[in-house]
Design brief:
Helix content is 42%, strand content 17%. The protein is built from 22 helices and 19 strands.
């Protein structure tokens, strides 16, 4: 009798960030092991790579640590992988290796410090056996470090050389230089900045990292990952052998995120089609000139088989929001242009963090580094000028939340206003519009027509799939405020005109808003703002004074005031 072969489908690696766990527990693996070859061939003493959240940073550093760690036997882990077909297979398990992840160093100051010390303690205890061959003074310091890590009341102040000391001890023991991998190194800096303890943490944390990275003769190579580069705090200052790779660089581009071929192969394995809908939702990232899919989203889509947003992380959203709160007028104008056009040409600085250099270019750099925008093209490399865009529909959903935050509005009210437009419901439109006006709109002072114009543009991200948004463009014999041009015959197009009067005039003539709203309708007709539109069109005239508004809605031959 022939032996029956049973095919066992590989498990979907949702949330798996440990390479050994991935390879030993029957999980589907996208082979990124040639990153090891690139890492060795580049020979950079210290490498810093920035990527958005959930793009494989932790898993890839776990892979590097697993491959080089002299305390492990990793042949079975890397069996049949691409790296084993190269001469660099001989480098496997040849180096004392330190792997530290600050991924979960979040929360208040005590939690962040506690987590960092736990990570250090784990590595110290893992190598505690080396004390048998260390000098007596080294053993005493080794134990003192462990005691500090284990004491909740101790800060990082007394352990600023903890990593560099461990590195020197490991070299003494193994007579080999040491590999060090630090994942999400910038998370504690970001948390400290957002939660108000930056001044008490950053010096000690920067010293902890700097002492091991600069002028350390015991270091073979170091590799750090994060969302952005922390430059000002002397972590990397005067580090001449540092190589920084951001998402604009081609180096390591194919190893973080899924390429088109990798995505097709994964989806096919789980009997899912590679469709335009999948591309529109999860693709769109330009990393080093490569077309890259969000790996977290693709894996979750393969698991749940439902085309919906998966790339959600409240912490990162808060980081962006806090930065936006400190933005200037130039950013606000450019953000509004981005909302309307889905594309922006601007100066972008990606090599430093926003909270170190709080200007418009570094804020856009944060948007790009964090994955909210992607580079469309390079306009002027010397002047850091790029064309950027929202990468896909999934990120567009995140931008709706950011836009509502930026306008100080509720997302459900913006969604309701969109529903009123889509269903051509005048009463619902005015009801929602009044609620939005009554919200605490601190940014928009509502002092002229343009204030309301930009205020209404906040719904652009909600309606752009159904309408082409035309704003302040010459149409007919004049310049219209807003045209919503329907993309399908099932929807009606809109022409919207704004009028404004100051409070002094309004108090003299309380009924003037009604006549101004009628004038707005007349202006639309007289100047033929709808000249390029076909089929049935709705005219909306909105007249304002502060948060008071009157609206006339003309559909066909009927011009009606709308009262709520």
């Amino acid at each position: 009798m022939k032996e029956q072969v049973i095919f066992v489908k590989l498990k979907i690696p949702t949330g798996i960030m440990n390479y050994r766990e991935l390879r030993t527990n029957n999980y589907y693996t996208v082979d990124k092991t040639l990153m090891i070859q690139d890492f060795l061939e580049r020979g950079s003493k210290v490498t810093l790579l920035t990527r958005p959240r959930r793009f494989g940073k932790t898993l890839n550093l776990s892979m590097l640590a697993e491959f080089f760690d002299i305390t492990k036997e990793s042949f079975e882990i890397f069996k049949n992988t691409k790296i084993m077909q190269t001469k660099y297979a001989a480098e496997m398990n040849q180096y004392p290796t330190i792997f530290i992840s600050f991924l979960n160093a979040k929360g208040d100051e005590n939690n962040v410090i506690k987590y960092i010390k736990e990570e250090l303690l784990r590595e110290y205890e893992r190598y505690s056996f080396i004390c048998n061959r260390l000098k007596e003074r080294q053993v005493r310091k080794y134990q003192r470090m462990i005691n500090i890590f284990d004491n909740e009341k101790e800060s990082l102040r007394n352990v600023n050389d903890a990593i560099s000391f461990l590195v020197s001890c490991l070299e003494d023991y193994y007579q080999r230089k040491v590999m060090i991998f630090i994942d999400e190194y910038d998370t504690p800096f970001i948390e400290a900045h957002m939660n108000g303890f930056y001044n008490t943490l950053h010096v000690d944390l920067a010293s902890l990292l700097r002492t091991v990275l600069k002028g350390n003769d015991s270091l073979q190579y170091g590799f750090l990952t994060g969302i952005q580069r922390v430059a000002k705090e002397n972590v990397f200052s005067d580090l001449n052998n540092l190589k920084v790779f951001t998402i604009k660089d081609k180096e390591y581009a194919q190893y973080f995120g899924f390429t088109v071929d990798e995505t097709k192969e994964l989806l096919s394995y789980y009997h899912l089609e590679y469709t335009h809908a999948v591309k529109d939702m999860y693709n769109g990232y330009n990393i080093g000139g490569l077309e890259i899919f969000n790996p977290w989203s693709i894996i979750n889509y393969a698991d749940e088989k439902e085309l919906k947003p998966y790339w959600v992380n409240t912490g990162s959203n808060i980081m962006i929001k806090k930065a936006m709160e400190h933005s200037g007028n130039i950013f606000r104008e450019e953000f509004e242009a981005l909302i309307q056009e889905n594309m922006l040409v601007t100066q972008i600085t990606m090599e430093t963090s926003f909270y170190e250099q709080s200007n418009t270019s570094s804020l856009w750099g944060l948007f790009v580094n964090a994955g909210y925008l992607t580079i469309n093209s390079v306009i002027d490399l010397e002047n850091n000028e790029y064309s950027v865009r929202i990468p896909n529909k999934e990120v567009e959903k995140e931008f709706k939340d950011l836009t509502a935050f930026y306008l100080h509005l509720e997302t459900n009210e913006l969604s309701n206003l969109y529903r009123a437009i889509k269903t051509s419901n005048p009463n619902l439109f005015l009801e929602c519009y009044k609620k939005l006006l009554m919200s605490p709109v601190s940014y928009h002072d509502l002092i002229n027509e343009n204030s309301y114009h930009m205020f209404l543009l906040g719904i652009c991200l909600y309606i752009k799939n159904d309408y082409e948004i035309i704003s302040n463009r010459e149409e007919g014999n004049g310049r219209c405020d807003i045209i919503l041009k329907a993309k399908t015959k099932e929807l009606l197009s809109y022409v919207i005109e704004f009028k404004y009067i100051n409070r002094k005039e309004y108090e003299k003539h309380p009924n003037i808003l009604k006549s101004l709203a009628i004038q707005a309708i007349q202006q639309i007709e007289e100047h033929q703002y709808d000249i390029e539109l076909t089929d049935e069109i709705i005219y909306i005239g909105l007249a304002h004074c502060g948060k008071h508004v009157e609206m006339f809605w003309k559909q066909g031959d009927n011009t009606l005031p709308v009262l709520v």
